[in-house]
Amino acid sequence: MNAPTSVTVRVPAKVNLRLAVGPVRGDGYHGLVNVFHAVSLYDEVTVSPRSDLAPGQAVLSVDGERPDHVARVPLDDSNLAARAAALLARHVPHATGVHIHVHKAIPVAGGMAGGSADAAAALVACDALWEGDTPRERLLELAAELGSDVAFPLIGCTAVGTGRGEQLSPLPVQGTFHWVFALVDGGLSTTKVFAEYDRLRPDAPEPTLDDALVAALAAGDARRLGAALTNDLQPAALALRPELGDLLEAGRAAGALGALVSGSGPTCAFLAESADHARELAAALRASGTCADTVTAHGPVPGATVV
C-alpha cells in the first residue's frame, strides 16, 4: 500500500465554559480548572511530503476568509503546527519534511485556541502521512509538551482540563448548545493577560470545578449553563481592552443567555437559546457597532478528524 501524498485534518475551535485560574506554580504555570467546549468553527490543516527538507522540517502557508487574521499567523518555526511536526518526527520512523497548509476560520489571537488547534491537527495529519500509527494516548502526551491547549482539540466534545489545562477528563453533555462569537479588531497577548491577572489577583485561590455548570451540561439546559459561565481572566482582559465591556453588555441586552470573554480574549462568546436566536443575536451585535464581525456555531463537536 502506497503512503498518502497528502492528508487534511479538520479541527475545531474551543470556548472555555469555565476558566478558573489559580496561583502561579513552581514551574511558572498557573494551576487551572478549564472546561473546554469544542464548537463548529474549523481550521483545516493539510500536510504533504517535501523531499528537499530534513525529517520534521516544515514550510508553512496560510489562507482564509479574513486577510487581517491570515497576516498575523507566523510562518516560521514559532508556529505551533511546525513545532508539532518537528516533535512528532522524533518519535516515528518514517518522517519526512513537510509542507503544512492551514486554511484559517478560527480567529487568530482571539482566545479560541486556533494556533493550538492547528498544532493538534498537524500531529494527526503528520502521523497519518508518515504512517506512524501513534497511539492516541501518546499523541495526547506530545500535545501537552507543545502547550496547555493543544491536547483538547485532539478529543473535542467537552472536557475539563486540570493541571495547567492539559490533563483532560471528558464531561457528559446532553443535546446541542448554540453560540455567537463576536470578533474585534486586534488581538490580545495571552502572556499579557495572565500578567494582568496576577496583578489584579495576587492572592488567587486554588481553582475548582463548578457543580452547577457540570449539571447544566449533563441536563442540556442552556439557561442554567448561561448562568454558570465564568472566566477568571475576564477582568484582566477588560482592563487591557475596556471596550470589550460594551460588547458583552450589548450581547446581554440582545438576550444572550450568557456572555463572557473567550479564554484570554478578545473574542467574546454569547450563548443563545437556539440556532434561530443565535442568528438574531449575531445580527444585533453587528448592528450595535461594538464588534467587527460575528460568527455562529454549535457545540459540542468532535475533535481533530482526517477528511
UniProtKB/TrEMBL annotation:
UniProt EC number: 2.7.1.148
Full protein name: 4-diphosphocytidyl-2-C-methyl-D-erythritol kinase
Pathway the protein takes part in: Isoprenoid biosynthesis; isopentenyl diphosphate biosynthesis via DXP pathway; isopentenyl diphosphate from 1-deoxy-D-xylulose 5-phosphate: step 3/6
Binding site for ATP: P107, V108, A109, G110, G111, M112, A113, G114, G115, S116, A117
Spans traversing the lipid bilayer: none
Function noted in UniProt: Catalyzes the phosphorylation of the position 2 hydroxy group of 4-diphosphocytidyl-2C-methyl-D-erythritol.
A biological-process GO annotation: terpenoid biosynthetic process
Annotated GHMP kinase N-terminal domain residues: 79-152
Pfam families: GHMP_kinases_C, GHMP_kinases_N
Keyword list, A-Z: ATP-binding, Isoprene biosynthesis, Kinase, Nucleotide-binding, Transferase
Domain GHMP kinase C-terminal per the UniProt entry, residue ranges: 214-289
Alphabetized HAMAP family for the sequence: IspE
Reactions accelerated catalytically: 4-CDP-2-C-methyl-D-erythritol + ATP = 4-CDP-2-C-methyl-D-erythritol 2-phosphate + ADP + H(+)
Family that this chain belongs to: Belongs to the GHMP kinase family. IspE subfamily.
Gene3D superfamilies: 3.30.230.10, GHMP kinase, C-terminal domain
InterPro entries (UniProt xref): GHMP_kinase_C_dom (IPR013750), GHMP_kinase_C_sf (IPR036554), GHMP_kinase_N_dom (IPR006204), IspE (IPR004424), Ribosomal_Su5_D2-typ_SF (IPR020568), Ribsml_uS5_D2-typ_fold_subgr (IPR014721)
